[in-house]
C-alpha cells in the first residue's frame, strides 16, 4: 500500500511513493505530509521518491524517512500557526532560506525555523535521510523563552541533548502504535524537554528537563541497545558506548525500581525463548541455545528460565513443535 494510516489521538501515516504512479506522487505528498506535519507546498526537482513515517501528536509533528530532491516552501497562504520547525539532515544535504538568510544543512546537522514566517528548503541532488519535527510554540515557549536566538543557527547532532532527542524519537517511532495514549503523552513531554535543552532552555526549565527528559531518553536509548544485542553486553560496554559511567547507568535502572542486571537477564531469556519457540531451531540443542543467548551456566539458565516463564526450556520447545 502506498499510504497506511492509524487514526486516534496519535494519528500516524506511512507514505511510500514507489507504490504510486509517478503522476500522483506529488499530490499525495502534499496532502499527507504538507498538510499534516509542516503545512508546506512541495515541488519535485527530479524523479519523486519518498519513504517516510509521519506521526501527529497534540502540539507535535514527527516525520522520519528518506526523500528525493524537492523544493519545499512555506508561503504566506499556508501559514496557520506559530509552530517551530526542526530539520535534521542525517544523510544528504539541504539549503534553508529564512529571515533573509541562507544556511546549508549537511550530514549530521540540524536547523530550526519559525513556522509563522515565509521560508524555503531546497533538498539537494542525492536526496535526504531526515528527521522533521514541528513544535507548538505555545507549549515550547515556557521552556525556552524567546526562540529567536536559536532560529537559523546550525545545531550539532553528534552529542548532547540533540543526540538524545534523535535517539529518543527513533526509538518511539520504532515502538509505533503499541504505545498507549498515556505513554505518548509522556513521550511528548520528554521530546519537548530535550528540544528545549538543545535550543537553550531557561535555567529553571533546563533543571527540570535534565531530571526528566534527559534521564528518560538516556534510559530508553540504553534499553534499545541492550535489546538489539539480546542482552549480550556488559555494563562497561554500555558505559563506553554512551559515554557515561557504569555507576550512573545502574542508577538509571534503579530509578525505575529494577536493575541493569535484571533487565539484561530478561533480554537474554527472551532471546532464548524466541529461539526455543521457533521450529527453525528445532535441530539445535538447548545447551547451544543457552550459550548463544549469553548463558555460560546451564543449570542457572534452566532455573532463571523457569522462574521467568513458569515452564522449562524443554516444555517451551515441545509446545512450539506440537503447535
CATH class group of the largest domain: Mainly Beta
Quaternary structure classification: single chain
Listing every helix as H and every strand as E from the N terminus to the C terminus, the arrangement reads EEHEEEEEEEEHEHHHHHHHHH
Terminus-to-terminus distance: 32 Å
Tell me the overall shape.
Answer: globular
Number of domains: 2
Arithmetic mean pLDDT: 78
Total beta-strand segments: 11
Task: Tell me the radius of gyration.
Answer: 23 Å
Q: In percent terms, what proportion of residues is strand?
A: 15-25%
Tell me the structural class.
alpha+beta
Number of helices: 11
Entry keywords:
323 residues; alpha+beta; Jelly Rolls; Arc Repressor Mutant, subunit A; 11-stranded antiparallel β-sheet; disordered N terminus
Folded structure, characterized:
Keywords: DNA-binding, Transcription, Transcription regulation. It comes from Mesorhizobium ciceri. The N terminus is likely disordered. Strands 1, 2, 3, 4, 5, 6, 7, 8, 9, 10 and 11 form an eleven-stranded antiparallel sheet that branches. The longest helix is centred in the last third of the chain and has 26 residues. This protein has two domains: 226 residues, Sandwich (Jelly Rolls); 49 residues, Arc Repressor Mutant, subunit A. Helix content is 45%, strand content 25%. The protein has 323 residues and is α+β, with helices and mostly antiparallel strands.
